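Data availability (excerpt). The following record was deposited with the supplementary files.
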Amino acid sequence: MLTMEPGIGHLDPSLLSGAELREAVLAADRERSRAEAREIALLAEFDARDEYKADGAVSAGLWLARHGDLTRSAAGSMASDARKLRRHPESMAACSEIGTAKVREFIRRVHSRIEAAYADAETSLLSTMRRFSVDDTIVFAKRWVAMVDQDGAEPPENTPSLTMGRTGDALHGSFSLFGEDAAFFASAVGNESDRIWRSEGDEHLPAPQRNAQALMDLLRKAVGASDITTDPAKPTVVVHMTLDQLEGRAGYELASVDPYGTLIPQDTIRRLLCDAKVHRILSDPNGIVLDFGYSERIVKGYQRLAVIARDRHCTFPGCDRPPAMCHAHHIVYWETGHGPTDMANLTLLCHRHHHLVHEGKFTCQRLPDGSLEFTRPDGTILEPQPRPG
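Predicted structure:
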């Protein structure tokens, strides 16, 4: 009887008999399944520790797609399954014994409402899976989920509403939509959330957080939809300074509050100042306003188009979010007076990575050859990823 030993992959299949070849294929498949089970266990721990964040990645799935040998969809699916299996050690251990495909096909259908039921029936369900093929396991899983997930919500009153409140720097609220509005909203957010999962690998986010990101992405796109040369969400910044500060005879510190009166951190102000509409208010030492300047865009329309033509998408290693989701980042900060608004000092960064470079303490510099170098907060350099032409 042929057994799968280390190095069997180097055997010449043409030298095997038909029976040996059949056995070798199945042995290789069992070995693949065991290796995948090991990878899932490692990925679950990697994800739980947020180790992917050291490379600025959005999720463990995206990190694996960039560094490993899987598509974004496959890597995202593996990371999502690993996250669920970490909560069910018995199922995690069963992967290498009864096959990763069976366990993964079942566990990915277990959502929050029935996870407790799955935990109660876990031993019995795994025992049943042993007898089934992968395809039969899928049928079995669908029937079991349909059987245990019979709860339904009572229909609310048909009164549209939206409430918002503020606690510190957090905005929270609730809403109710009905009929055509409800269908339109659910379709728009659902499609965008699905696009994030499929195209960007943000499967690390639970569905509520992914939906929130989808809504914000749609809003950013909508705000900038009237002009391709603008960022999707353009802040308006009012710079209030004295004449001495304007002429450099006195120093200043960045300080600002939002419309709710919440103090905005300096790193956040610097990020907003990268590409904003700026009003200037000039006052005397007693606070009397001397002059009010008109709004002016820091990165003007055609200059942004030139940056888009050069960069094409977010330039952070491993990210390819499109220009509609990117800001024009000043590599040397604009507010210091030393960061000119020219092509060499500008680069496209998506909202997440723009945040990482400012508030997250990642750094970015343009090298003499024109390429960009990104550095982690600990000073180590992020390896650049080759991009298709």
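Summary of structural features: The chain has three domains: 8-147, 179-223, 236-375.
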